[in-house]
């Protein structure tokens, strides 16, 4: 029998390596620690827990706590007149042109929008949205002085970051505002508002029939922004919902 030649041995080794490569194994593995750091013995590498290329694992930095909007809750005004004045002066709120809410406590109806209009200067909703709302209130048979009109944000803000605002506590401040306002009914215009009240954003605002907070239940009608109601179809759908909701 002829002894295997160097060529046969080379073919066998090459074939074995090819077989392992096809199996997905293309590196040599060892359970023993290797000295990746210069001048470090294998035993030192195992003890120090050095990672390949000498990269040491670093614990992630602690999360940065965001400052809360409104500051200390215990200092929030407990009556509406004081709250409206505080709304204009509180330093943790937006430093732009603030527009105060308007209307009485325990109003027949409270209308809540996401933010003031771009045209607002002294009065909230004094632009096209406000004109539309005035026409709607007239059709509803509700006088302006019976309505509380408020916005979640104190200033007109292009593309607000609602996720950050929510994490900063704007929802808690909104809940406090609603609590001391104590309206008989509440209409919300804006898809970003219901999640601040604890509503599942995956569900339609139409599935939020009441506002329930600390034992007080307020009938609630939620819809898209007032801008959306400039379209005839959307206006007709809202009006039908209003009639069903108000029992008229």
What order do the helices and strands come in, and which of them pair?
Elements lengths: L5 H17 L19 H7 L31 H10 L19 E5 L14 H13 L6 E5 L10 H6 L2 H12 L4 E4 L20 E4 L2 E8 L8 H15 L2
Parallel strand pairs: 1-2, 1-3, 3-5
Antiparallel strand pairs: 4-5
Description:
The protein has 248 residues and is α/β, with parallel strands linked by helices. It has one domain (73-246): Uracil-DNA glycosylase-like domain (Uracil-DNA Glycosylase, subunit E, 3-Layer(aba) Sandwich), CATH 3.40.470.10. 32% of the residues lie in helices and 10% in strands. The protein is built from seven helices and five strands; from the N terminus they run H-H-H-E-H-E-H-H-E-E-E-H. The protein has helices spanning 6-22, 42-48, 80-89, 128-140, 162-167, 170-181, 232-246, and strands at 109-113, 147-151, 186-189, 210-213, 216-223. Strand 1 (109-113), helix 4 (128-140) and strand 2 (147-151) form a beta-alpha-beta unit. The protein is elongated, with a radius of gyration of 33 Å. The mean pLDDT is 83.
Please count the helical segments: 7
CATH topology: Uracil-DNA Glycosylase, subunit E
Read across the widest sheet, the strand sequence of neighbours is 2-1-3-5-4
Q: Find the CATH superfamily.
A: Uracil-DNA glycosylase-like domain
Helix and strand string, N-terminal first?
A: HHHEHEHHEEEH
CATH class call: Alpha Beta
* CATH architectural label: 3-Layer(aba) Sandwich
Shape descriptor reads: elongated
Give the strand content: 5-15%
Radius of gyration: 33 Å
Q: Provide the helix percentage.
A: 25-40%
Question: Structural class of the helix and strand makeup?
Answer: alpha/beta
């Amino acid at each position: 029998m002829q002894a295997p030649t160097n060529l046969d041995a080379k073919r066998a080794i090459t074939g074995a390596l090819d077989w392992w490569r096809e199996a997905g194994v293309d590196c040599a593995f060892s359970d023993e620690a290797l000295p990746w750091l210069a001048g470090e013995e294998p035993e030192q590498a195992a003890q120090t827990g050095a990672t390949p290329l000498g990269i040491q694992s670093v614990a992630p930095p602690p999360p940065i706590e965001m400052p809360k909007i409104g500051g200390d809750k215990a200092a929030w005004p407990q009556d509406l007149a004081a709250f409206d004045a505080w709304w204009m002066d509180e330093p943790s709120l937006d430093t732009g042109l603030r527009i105060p809410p308007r209307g009485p406590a325990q109003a027949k109806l409270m209308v809540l929008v996401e933010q003031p209009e771009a045209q607002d200067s002294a009065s909230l909703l004094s632009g096209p949205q406000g004109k539309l709302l005035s026409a709607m209130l007239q059709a509803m048979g509700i006088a302006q002085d019976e309505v509380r009109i408020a916005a979640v944000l104190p200033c007109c803000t292009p593309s607000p970051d609602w996720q950050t605002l929510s994490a900063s506590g704007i929802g808690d401040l909104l809940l406090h505002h609603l609590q001391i306002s104590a309206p008989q009914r509440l209409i919300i215009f804006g898809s970003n508002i219901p999640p601040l009240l604890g509503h599942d954003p995956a569900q339609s605002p139409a599935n939020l029939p009441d506002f329930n907070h600390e034992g007080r239940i307020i009938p609630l009608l939620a819809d898209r922004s007032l801008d959306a109601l400039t379209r005839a179809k959307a206006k007709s759908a809202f009006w039908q919902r209003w009639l069903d909701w108000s029992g008229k």
